[in-house]
Amino acid sequence: MTSDARHERRLREIEQRRQHHERAGQQAVQRQQQLRALGFLGVIVAVLAIGGYLAFGSFFNRPSAAIGTIDVQSSMAGFTPSTITVTAGTVATLNWWTDDAAMHMTGGVHTMISPELGMNEQLPAESRRMITWQVPDKPGTYDVWCDSCCGGKDAPQMHGKIVILPNNA
Ligand SMILES: [Cu+2]
User: Fold this and answer.
1) Beta strands per DSSP E along 10-118
2) Residue 2 CA to ligand 1 centre (angstroms)
3) What is the pLDDT of residue 48?
4) Above 70 in pLDDT, residue 6?
5) Does the predicted model carry a pTM greater than 0.85?
6) Where among 43, 61, 79 does a domain terminate?
7) How far is the CA of 86 from the centre of ligand 1 (A)?
8) Residues 153 and 109 in one domain
9) How does residue 66 score in pLDDT terms, banded at 50, 70 and 90?
10) Do both 74 and 57 map to the same domain?
């Protein structure tokens, strides 16, 4: 074998090794890019999952019989709205609130009283209470009143109505 041929072969070997290294390098870069893409996808999935949980989590966690939250304000004018409607046998959530100061009310509270419904609740001045109420399974229209301000039970404006609809579910 001539020295030229040996030299030639040596050059070929070097070139092959170089190409091999290059391919390995490219593959490593591709793997890195794939990993990065996977990581990014993972972040997107996590964000969607967390967002979905925040948007629907409380909804899914509600008791199946729950209806929407009912806002009720107590004031010197009585209950606003003066009639609330719920469904028998469901869980109702009342968001009960007042802006009134304590000095206008006996004991510093508004009350929500309905002996027929076993209801006797108090709401401190300038506050808000969430009441989770298991609505009794007795459809009808019930009287409810506040007995701690403005004449109480004797004053017509201190009365409201709770309408319990039959549960057809
Ligand atoms: Cu009151």
Assistant:
1) 69-75, 78-80, 83-87, 91-97, 109-114
2) 113
3) 58
4) yes
5) no
6) 61
7) 22
8) yes
9) very low
10) no
Encode pLDDT of 118-165 as tens digits: 999 999 999 999 999 999 999 999 999 999 999 999 999 999 999 999
Distance 167 CA to ligand 1 centre (A): 31
Domain extent, residue 44, equals 1-61
- The CATH number assigned to the domain holding 91 equals 2.60.40.420
For residue 141, how far is its CA from the centre of ligand 1 (angstroms)? 21
Structure tokens at 29: 């870069």
Q: How far, in Å, is the centroid of ligand 1 from the Cα of 138?
A: 26
* Residues, Cβ < 5 Å to ion ligand 1: 110, 146, 149
Q: Angle 34-35-38 (CA atoms, 0-180°, nearest 5)?
A: 85
Is residue 138 within 8 A of residue 164, CB to CB? The reply is yes
Counting the structural domains of the chain, the total is 2
CA of 89 to the centre of ligand 1 (A): 27
Cα 169 to ligand 1 centroid, rounded to whole Å: 35
Q: How far is the CA of 92 from the centre of ligand 1 (A)?
A: 21
- Cα-trace Rg, the chain: 36
Asked if pLDDT for residue 88 goes beyond 90, the answer is yes
pLDDT at 113 over 90: yes
| Burial (0-12, 13-18, 19+ Cβ within 10 Å), 112 | buried
